[in-house]
Design goal:
Two copies of one chain form a homodimer. With 261 residues, chain A is α+β, with helices and mostly antiparallel strands. Chain A contains ten helices and eight strands. In chain A, helix 1 crosses helix 3, helix 2 crosses helix 3 (46-58) and helix 5 runs antiparallel to helix 10. At the A-B interface, helix 1, helix 3 and helix 4 of A face helix 1, helix 3 and helix 4 of B. Chains A, B: It comes from Rhizobium leguminosarum bv. viciae.
DNA sequence: ATCACATGTACGATATATTGGACACAAATG
DNA sequence: CATTTGTGTCCAATATATCGTACATGTGAT
């Protein structure tokens, strides 16, 4: 519904929201930070951050690490994440699919999902020529920057897409502005064709292939992608797409199916 | 400090604490539940639980699954847990150690840690005779019930141990009462010897071996364990302990060492 | 039909969590 | 030496989150 909640000025933030904002921020930074630094960088009152950090420390959600009072994500989060992974048991099948893709194509293969209203690489298998991939596993990236993004929002209406994606995420990394209507047209095209491919707009030398992995609700719960050198990708387009579709078929309905019961 | 905080009557619970209580409860249950059921089973006001569940749903911390409005741990927790695992990169080395133990002993090997003030099996490798192990991976268990428990609290003073472990956890599964002083004596013995072994008090047919894996602070951050049939365990005691110590030495200082930086 | 129960929603009262600002201290900077 | 910056703690004010209660619904039992 309200994708952006922190727009009103002079309003107090809810502790829970702030807490998860802190956790997400630490995940993005991927390093331990002092409460003071966190407060400054997320633009939250220092006293609130100190209070919340202490609460989270007591719960094992955060841990002291790196010295100097720095904190990072805690063990409890690992346990909770492991329980999620155990329930929605996509990991094993996912790894097998990536393995298969890597074997057949020798290219870099990725398993991607939405993280809130952004895109993230959940698992990756490096290809035979491991060139520098621009997005690391676990980093969240604006949806419009990625081929997978076209598939992951395809179940939403045009208006829902516009509400869902933060407006500033249509600003591409090279500074250009991607017209939302252009993006939506690509989404609809991807939806019809059941795939999306393009020359990456994050770098200037890769071609990206994405196909949907469908969940219980029938829409794309995740995607499988290949990231290839541009020449290679264009030369092997049909074969690569076949490999992707085959691998995705093996995962379909898996990501949201409980392990048992 | 204050291990038990929900003792005072007529006091409001803090949303954050309640929220993580809900998450932990779902993890213990390992299944999706309706908000109503959660409220009833953790003894929290229904209106509060509905409010919190909705907040957590909006944040992706919880997800609808299983129909009928049931909720379970969400994808965001998986991402946060993965970030923790990536930072404190014990997984790879841990798996190798378990593999090695399983090869050398053919017995069930476990990697265990504290989860707050209880004990949990983080990873397990089934042995050649996979009999029914009483504790599953991810379930949390009273510290006094386990061999590892003796090692995991050994860095605390006697008084700290008593404050740390919930009093009711000294009630053993067979109904007997384990005198805290007896437990503490065993803790000190384990600390001196750098190991603890006993016939399991959870079941009646296994023998347990535990050795510490030391973290940066020098005390047991985790343990490696073997769970064996009693005869086997007693017959091979010395060899098994050697295997454990060797494997633990390979992990020492690893659990809390960042991958890089 | 009547009752009991499970489930979800709505709302007001009040206990309290969030917040800005003051304070203390150390370290860096001029 | 004076000043600025970074860090953490403490405190009171008030906006609001929590919680009891009431209400609405569906379902199954008696």
């Amino acid at each position: 519904m309200d994708a952006v909640q922190d727009e009103a000025a002079g309003k107090r933030a809810r502790g829970l929201d702030r807490a998860f904002e802190i956790l997400d921020f630490l995940r993005q930074k991927r390093q331990a930070l002092k409460p003071n630094e966190i407060a400054a960088q997320i633009g939250a009152p220092r006293s609130s951050v100190y209070e919340l950090v202490n609460l989270l420390l007591q719960n094992g959600i955060l841990e002291f690490t790196g010295g100097e009072g720095r904190v990072y994500l805690g063990r409890k989060l690992y346990f909770l994440g492991a329980a999620y992974e155990n329930h929605f048991d996509f990991t094993r099948e996912c790894e097998a699919a990536l393995e298969q893709l890597a074997d057949e194509t020798r290219e870099t293969a990725q398993f991607c999902m939405l993280d809130g209203n952004r895109y993230t690489v959940v698992r990756m298998r490096e290809g035979a020529r491991p060139f520098r991939i621009s997005t690391d596993v676990g980093q969240s990236v604006p949806i419009p920057w990625t081929a997978s993004g076209r598939l992951l929002v395809a179940h939403l209406s045009d208006q829902e897409i516009l509400n869902f994606i933060p407006p500033q995420d249509f600003r591409l990394p090279n500074g250009e502005w991607l017209e939302p209507q252009t993006f939506i047209a690509e989404v609809r095209q991807a939806e019809r064709e059941g795939l999306f491919t393009f020359n990456s707009i994050v770098d200037s030398f890769t071609h990206c292939f994405a196909v949907p992995v469908r969940g219980e609700e029938g829409h794309a719960a995740a995607t499988l992608c290949l990231v290839t050198p541009r020449d290679d990708g264009i030369a092997n387009r049909d074969r690569y797409l076949d490999c992707l579709k085959k691998a995705a078929a093996g995962l379909d309905h898996a990501p949201s199916r409980p392990k048992r019961t």
